[in-house]
Amino acid sequence: MKSSITKRIMAGIVCAMVAVSICGCSEKPAQSSASESSVTSDAGSVSESVSEASDSSTATGTAAEITAKIQEDVKFPGMAEIGADRMAGYYDVAGDKIDSYSAYICGSGAYPDEIAVFKMKSADDVNAVKSVLEKRVESQSTAFKDYTPDEMYKIDGNNVVTSGNYVALIICADNAKAIEDFKAMAK
After folding, report:
1. Beta-carbon count within 10 A of 171 CB
2. What is the mean pLDDT of each run of 10 residues along the chain (187 residues)?
3. What pLDDT, on a 0 to 100 scale, did the predictor assign at position 21?
4. DSSP states of 64-105 as a string?
5. DSSP letters spanning 27-54
6. How far apart are CA 150 and CA 181, in angstroms?
7. What pLDDT does 8 receive?
8. CA neighbours within 13 Å on the CB side: how many for 162?
9. In contact, 169 and 157? CB cutoff 8 Å
10. Beta carbons of 116 and 83 less than 8 angstroms apart
11. Three-class SS of residue 171?
12. What H or E segment, with its residue span, contains residue 5?
């Protein structure tokens, strides 16, 4: 009798452990995807809107499409998306001023690689976001100069670029190619 109760208790514990491990691991890990991010702030909520080109020969892209294209063309370490729920921890940008947003960092934190693309609602806000992103580059430079000095070539002084209402922070192994992709799509 006592052995039967012990077996049932052990079986129950094993089932509970399996259930907890399945539930704890059921969320997808962060991947390099072109999913759209929604940006939420105290001032309101902004969702990604897809804009169409007025001229079919001119390529335009959403922030997520631009980051996806850059990741397709440039080699990156495993990247993790910075969702809207974590954006404020990286970038001090008011959500109500953003038309679209997409950002990724090195998932392991071992490399300074990072892409962030903001499409602002107004051209008046571009310089303020550029300033925020330049401070982020300075912060990354300070953090990685002693940690991984061999990676510092990625922070080359040309990491924040603008095009129209778009602002991008680009830190990667081929900044020139990434900037070329950004400028081709950010119109």
Report:
1. 26
2. 71 58 39 37 34 39 94 94 92 93 94 96 96 95 92 92 96 96 93
3. 47
4. HHHHHHHHHHS--SSEEE--TTTGGGT----GGGEEEEEEEE
5. SPPP----PPPPEEETTEEE---PPPPS
6. 25
7. 75
8. 15
9. no
10. no
11. strand
12. helix 2-24
Q: 3-class DSSP state for residue 170? A: strand
Give me the pLDDT at residue 52, please.
32
Q: In terms of Cα–Cα distance, which of 178, 173, 134 is closest to 157?
A: 134
Q: Which residue(s) pair with 119 in the sheet?
A: 100, 166
Are the C-beta atoms of residues 104 and 79 closer than 8 Å to each other? Answer: yes
Q: What size, in residues, is the chain?
A: 187
Q: Model's pTM, two decimal places?
A: 0.69
| Cβ proximity of 170 and 159 under 8 Å | yes
Handedness of CA 2, 8, 13, 14 (dihedral sign): positive
Q: Which of 78, 76, 68 is nearest to 181 (CA)?
A: 68
Instruction: Tokens 């982020």: give the residue.
Output: 136
